[in-house]
Design brief:
This protein has four helices and 17 strands. By secondary structure, the chain is mostly beta strands. It has a 17-stranded mixed β-sheet that branches. Strand 1 and strand 2 form a beta hairpin. The radius of gyration is 20 Å and the shape is globular. The termini are far apart.
Amino acid sequence: MLLDLPTTREEGWRWSELDRLPALAAGGRQGGAPDPAGYLIGCGGPRLVFVDGAFDAAASDPQDVGVGAVEAGSAHALARLTRGAEGWTLTLGPDAAPAATIEIVHLGTGGASHLPARIALAAGAQASVVETFAGAGWANRLTAIDLARGARLMRSIRIVADDGYVSLRDEATLAAGASLVTIALGAGGADARFDAHVTLAGPEAYAEVGGALLTRGRQRQEAAVVLRHAAPHGQSRQTWRAVAADQAVASLAARVEVARDAQKTDGEQSLRGLLLKRTATVNLKPELEIFADVVKCAHGATVGELDAQALFYLASRGVPPGRAEALLTHAFVAQAIDRIGEERVAEAFAADADRWLEQAL
């Protein structure tokens, strides 16, 4: 496959390093796939397992989730590679809701896999979806989301792949009163990029996109999110936390666009970075573009180290230095991932973060 990849000369990709993607795409399987049981949370709802982008029917129980051709396309530099591939589709009628959270596990053994997905919720429908990425190789995904009036979707994304690259692109449209909450956690050894473009097309829509990127070694992870308010009385929140150790790089670019007709918009951004080593790097880029007259929008961005006074206090109470650093870092990360609504999923994400901290500190 001939890859036409963006370069760092393009503003939206200035912090990206995509040089290894051609080699990953040309590579083959490096061994057997990890056991999916180790990554399923056990929510009791539909479950789908994909290995190198191929559906594993034996390990899956899709129930009402469709598998096959997907009506989704994108002009995004990486997401367009999913065009024509098979994936999964969740379509719910008015006021419908699955009995439990839907789990989707993506396992990689090497090489590249490009997989599209589509979520379409009719008026008043509700769903919760958790996706997990594990293994190795390049996992490239596009998720197209359409939420009708009053529909509600909770998306939880955990990237715990050991090696390779995970690139995710969400493109969502929200009708009047619809709600989308997406929380992502990068806590593996792979490089990763999470892209999202969410349009609040109807009045009183709500969108929240955030999460935590945990990086160590020479790892690079980034998030690039655009929330566009196109109708009045919309609300949006972006809460991101980035932790970088060793020579790692974590980058966050969050943008809010408010159209002229989107009066009385309420938008907030909170981007914070934590350096565990001064050799690490955190890049933050908050942006507001406002054309409406009556809005309430705010953003904040800070990068720093662990609070020396808090570390001293914990030491005075007999807490070992490593444990003290882990406690403070856990609290920092929790600010972004505590919005996950289902307790079992939230516990799994917290456990992933704790495992990362044990290895990094």
